[in-house]
Amino acid sequence: MNVAGxxxxxxxxxxxxxxWMTVFHLSFDLNFFGLISKQNFYTDPFWTWQRTAIVxxxxxxxxxxxxxxxxxxxxxxxSAWQRLNARFWRRWAQVAGCALLVSVGSALVFPGSFIYFGxxxxxxxxxxxxxxxxxxxxxxWVAGGLAVVLKYISASAIPSSAGASFxxxxxxxxxxxxxxxxxxxxxxxxxPWLAAVWWGLAAGxxxxxxxxxxxxxxxxxxxxxxxxxxxxxxxxxxxxxxxMGLLWLWMWAGR
Length: 255
What we know:
Blueprint: H1 8-32, H2 45-72, H3 86-109, H4 119-132, H5 139-157, H6 190-210, H7 220-229, H8 232-253
Helix pairs in contact: 1-2, 1-7, 1-8, 2-4, 2-6, 3-4, 4-6, 5-6
């Protein structure tokens, strides 16, 4: 730990997710501008499985981060609602504000499939759930497993249940209990993605309790790799506009 309250290996893990996400989005942008052979990022398993892995890694690290926060601030000894302190709400406001900007920006670029509940929207809600449930201990592992199971149950039950199809409506599909994926560029509902946050929270609390040295790193290489991960939200917000802007300029200059 070299910056107050931060662990190099945790931030380095965020950096890995950021680099992978950048490569994925650069590929998407090249496809969007017709600069590579046509790819289907919505159905091709090569791309859909990568997206699943990238989002899972981001949410897992978010859970790890919540574990560090509640451990360092001594919040596990407080009631669930007392864990939602002022420091938490400041960070939450940043995430929620960025989620709103993503919706506005995506509506300008993809008006027919704008992002109304993507990864930042989901994360804003999952952070609250994570704080409230941080005291569950080993039951966090079980809760995550149930979230995954619930997704598969809902996927098979909703199509055959006339009374449950309303979960497909936009005002409720943030829950994830859907049988038909909505038309949107990014969709990260509570079910099953909350599982990744819960498992990250459970793993982080276990490491801090039993193997805290796993988070520590003294090597210079870890410190360098950790640096971008300390600015993950800012990077997330800026990387796509920058990538798309640079590609547009390159195409314009090549006319």
